[in-house]
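Practice problem 4.
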């Protein structure tokens, strides 16, 4: 059972958001029937956190900006660097803006590889791969 059962995100334009998010969430293995229910569209998979996009009740005066009070970004942990690159490409092809192309982030760890994208509402996602450090090599202490 996931620690977080579901995550709801309110977007400026639900139709645009569904068009952008669906290819990404589908590529991550989540599914949706695409129907709006109580103002939102949901994606889920057994054992995973459900993600729901909600229609904003009124048009926002300005788009969301990362770094303001509230949501910073949502990071999806994936199995490989190639998967980071694939998901980044899926997102960009679906209308997301590339904020940071796939690259290493050694300030987090030697293995950390990630990319960042933003949707039309200014909501940011990260696709990241950070495998455990190999502690089986001679002399390895296992600490990061």
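Answer key:
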């Amino acid at each position: 059972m996931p620690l977080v059962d579901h995550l709801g995100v309110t977007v400026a334009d639900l139709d645009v958001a569904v068009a952008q998010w669906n290819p990404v969430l589908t590529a991550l293995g989540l599914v949706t029937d695409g129907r709006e229910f109580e103002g939102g569209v949901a994606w889920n998979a057994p054992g995973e956190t459900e993600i729901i996009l909600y229609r904003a009740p009124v048009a926002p005066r300005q788009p969301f900006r990362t770094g303001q009070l509230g949501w910073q970004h949502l990071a999806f942990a994936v199995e490989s660097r190639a998967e980071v690159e694939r998901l980044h490409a899926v997102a960009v092809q679906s209308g997301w803006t590339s904020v940071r192309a796939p690259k290493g982030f050694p300030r987090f760890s030697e293995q950390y590889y990630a990319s960042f994208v933003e949707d039309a509402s200014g909501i940011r996602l990260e696709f990241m791969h950070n495998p455990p450090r190999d502690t089986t090599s001679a002399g390895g202490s296992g600490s990061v």
